[in-house]
Write a structure and sequence with these properties.
By secondary structure, the protein is mainly alpha-helical. The protein has one domain: MetI-like (MetI-like fold), CATH 1.10.3720. The protein is built from 15 helices and no strands. The protein is elongated, with a radius of gyration of 23 Å. The N terminus is likely disordered.
């Protein structure tokens, strides 16, 4: 199977990665999404430079002010600059997405490889574990687990507990996906050849099988970041996520639960809400294009 693919690459002068990039960049929405996500990441990294106001500083003389030249997104009820809080909040929301997905992908990949490669009893144990976790809505389990984690950790470390909880409860779908691919790939000729040459089981899984699943991993991770950002926002909106005064997009939108703020101070929740929508939609555009690029049959 590899020889025709290699011959095709030589004849066209393009590697599979180059062909995937060409398919990806045909999607204008994906390119726009890539630019938007890059801008969001730069803003989050450069928050101390971009946001000159202290996001935690109360200024009672300028509280509940609409957008002005000094406070371009206005101020909240305690006089904190909404623009600065939105930029710093992006740090938390994006970090939750990256860390949670890294943990989720790591667990799902390892368990999926082990389950599909060994089969039998190991496969049954891993798949029954995924069935148990998938039997409950993730948001319900996360809402129950976050308060427990918050009580076990110092307040400043609660955000890392939230990242861990999201990552530990969102891997089953990936594990099933990797298991299915491993069941097929373990019987591929190049894996059987490696086995006959004395390659260890670990080498067969992580050197010969894992690289063939990278396309699926990449697509899952892209959508997973968007889902993790929404989960954190939902938890914060319900009061179980990042706790004030530390800003996150979710707990800034949570202030809109007050009818007074919803009607009279729309600038305090509109900006972070817009940032959530724009970021998640952009990531989904990228994920859709990646799925089409790595698997042309899905087009």
């Amino acid at each position: 199977m590899l020889i025709p693919a290699t011959a095709q690459s030589l004849s066209t002068g393009n590697s599979p990665t180059q062909r995937a990039w060409k398919r990806f960049r045909r999607s204008k929405l994906a390119l726009v999404g890539l630019v938007v996500v890059a801008i969001m990441a730069i803003l989050a990294i450069a928050a101390p430079i971009v946001a000159q106001q202290d996001p935690l500083k109360n200024d009672l003389l300028n509280r509940s002010k609409p957008p002005t030249a000094e406070h371009i997104f206005g101020t909240d009820r305690t006089g904190r600059d909404v623009f600065s809080r939105t930029i710093y909040g992006g740090r938390i929301s994006l970090l939750v997405g990256l860390v949670a997905v890294t943990l989720s992908v790591s667990i799902g990949t390892v368990l999926g490889l082990i389950s599909g490669f060994y089969g039998g009893l190991v496969d049954n144990i891993v798949m029954r574990l995924t069935d148990v976790i998938m039997a409950f809505p993730p948001i319900i389990i996360i809402m129950a687990a976050v308060p427990i984690v918050a009580n076990l950790l110092p307040s400043e470390a609660t955000i890392y507990g939230i990242m861990a909880v999201i990552g530990l409860l969102t891997w089953p779908q990936l594990a099933r996906l990797i298991r299915g691919q491993t069941l097929v790939l373990r019987n591929a000729e190049y894996v059987i050849a490696a086995q006959s040459l004395g390659a260890s089981k670990g080498r067969q899984m992580f050197v010969h099988i894992l690289p063939q699943t990278l396309a699926s991993l990449l697509v899952f991770a892209t959508f997973g970041i968007a889902n993790a950002i929404l989960l954190e926002a939902g938890l914060s909106f319900l009061g179980q996520g990042v706790q004030p005064p530390i800003p996150s997009w979710g707990n800034m939108v949570e202030t809109a639960r007050s009818l007074d703020i919803l009607e009279n101070l729309p600038w305090t929740w509109f900006a972070p809400g817009l940032f959530i929508v724009v970021t998640v939609v952009s990531i989904n555009f990228i994920g859709d294009a990646l799925r089409d690029a790595v698997d042309p049959k899905s087009r």
